[in-house]
Design brief:
heterodimer, A: 252 residues, alpha/beta, TIM Barrel, 11 strands, 37% helix, B: 208 residues, Rossmann fold, eight-stranded mixed sheet, four-stranded mixed sheet
């Protein structure tokens, strides 16, 4: 049976993981390669690395990280951040990434999704959407790290992304992100019912029951960062818990 | 012993190379006929569209090279799209002829609205072992998960004969197929953690 996926997300700044201090068994806690390897051994199903380095000139450092991760881990991983053109796709795919995540650049230029899907295949195009609830009972798409409200309906944008050739949607709720009170269940449920491609829930994981709730609501995968980085939740414990909850899991 | 990883412009081949090298296998990424002829085994990786892949094999004059080597008994491992190419034909965006090493065709998963299953079939699924005695599958159990990502799947003419292991996704999805020296894996062994690694070790023993 196809399992639900658990995906740790690592924000990388100048080649180092941001927030990742409380680790004991890892030599260099802020090294994305070491941390990626650790999560992979713990049973993570995939990994996501976001380049949050503000300076575009420092891109080489990050590409070097991607190459090292590809050498070190034997599970699929996605690269996001700083992807604006199909050549950016090419660069990280050639460095060894399996998928590439686009966000603001796709909102500004939806054709990028189609061009990348045609050139590299749908399977490697992940459309990442930052969504925030509005007062009309729906969600707006935000860009530039949640600073800019585009006024675009998030569900409609996801549908458009799917029709343009995205292979997956990663939906990040700005309302729940960092609050640790659970994922936006309604948003994830609605998206999962609407789309025919997999949905990755992001933003809000605080306890193991939060994962269970969003995966039962229909999300195919759940992404989280700090609960893993600060060891508040260990992946083997989480997967055992979710398996006991009746969710299909790959237990390592 | 050198493994030729066929380079025909269909995605990144480095991860396959990394995985094989970690098992101390000598490999070379190539599209050169002589190098392929001199190799002790061949890997045909690939992601993307069936038609593009076949066109590229044609463009680089690799079709005849592959046929000749396979007929001569050399081991060929097709991975993901590379496995689909082993079949007679595919209906991905038209009708396309494949390499014809394994009788059968490649078709799209049924519409999500009918099955309730999302397409692509993406993520970790467990293997059901159809031929437990086959050396490639000898280490496997049905609790072993591997990583899939595909929207089309193979329908072999002779399921019982040619399917070593399958996954369940609405239908029985051939995961490992084998006809003598030709082996295909629909999933990505190079991305399937310890289980994938073990499968590559099994293949290494087979070709040694």
């Amino acid at each position: 049976m196809l399992t639900k996926r658990i995906i740790p997300c690592l924000d990388v700044d100048h080649g180092r993981v941001v927030k990742g201090k409380k680790f004991k068994n890892i030599q260099d806690v802020a090294d994305p390669v070491e941390l990626g390897r650790y999560y992979s051994e713990q049973g993570a199903d995939e990994l996501v690395f976001y380049d949050i380095t503000a300076s575009y000139e420092k891109r080489d450092i990050f590409i070097n990280v991607v190459e090292k991760v590809a050498e070190a881990v034997r599970i699929p991983f996605t690269i996001g951040g700083g992807i604006r053109t199909t050549d950016d796709f090419r660069q990280v795919l050639m460095a060894g990434a399996d998928k590439v995540s686009v966000n603001s650049a796709a909102v500004n230029n939806p054709q990028l999704i189609m061009d990348a899907a045609l050139r590299f295949g749908n399977q490697c195009v992940v459309l990442s959407i930052d969504a925030k609830r509005n007062d009309k009972g729906s969600w707006d798409v935000f860009t530039n790290g949640g600073r800019n409200n585009t006024g675009i309906d998030a569900i409609e944008w996801a549908k458009k992304g799917e029709s343009l050739g995205a292979g997956e949607i990663c939906i990040n709720s700005i309302d729940t992100d960092g609050v640790k009170q659970g994922y936006d269940i309604e948003l994830n449920k609605k998206l999962s019912e609407t789309l025919t491609i997999p949905v990755i829930a992001s933003g809000g994981a605080g306890k193991m029951a939060d994962f269970s709730e969003v995966l039962k609501a229909g999300a195919d995968a759940a992404l989280a960062a700090s609960v893993f980085h600060y060891k508040e939740i260990l992946i083997p414990d989480l997967k055992k818990y979710l398996s006991d909850e009746g969710l299909p899991m790959r237990l390592v | 012993m050198t493994v030729a990883i066929i380079d025909y412009d269909v995605g990144n081949l480095k991860n396959v190379e990394t995985a094989l090298k970690s098992l101390d296998m000598d490999c070379v990424i190539t599209r050169d006929a002589r190098t392929i002829n001199n190799a002790s085994a061949i890997v045909l990786p690939g992601v993307g569209a069936f038609a593009d892949a076949m066109n590229n094999l044609d463009k680089f004059d690799l079709y005849d090279v592959l046929v000749k080597n396979v007929k001569g008994g050399k081991y060929l491992l097709g991975i993901c799209l590379g496995m689909q190419l082993l079949f007679d034909e595919s209906s991905e965006d038209g009708q396309w002829k494949g390499l014809g090493f394994v009788p059968g065709k490649v078709v799209r998963f049924e519409d999500t609205k009918k099955t309730g299953l999302k397409v692509p079939h993406m993520g970790w699924n467990n293997l059901n072992i159809h031929q437990p005695d086959d050396p490639i599958a000898k280490t496997l159990s049905d609790k072993d998960y591997v990583y899939f990502v595909h929207s089309y799947y193979a329908v072999p003419d002779h399921f019982d004969r040619d399917v070593v292991a399958y996954a369940k996704y609405g239908v029985k999805v051939p995961a490992i197929v084998r006809r003598e020296n030709v082996i295909g894996m629909q999933f990505h062994p190079e991305k399937s953690a310890a289980v994938g690694n073990q499968l590559l070790i099994n293949w290494k023993e087979l070709i040694s």
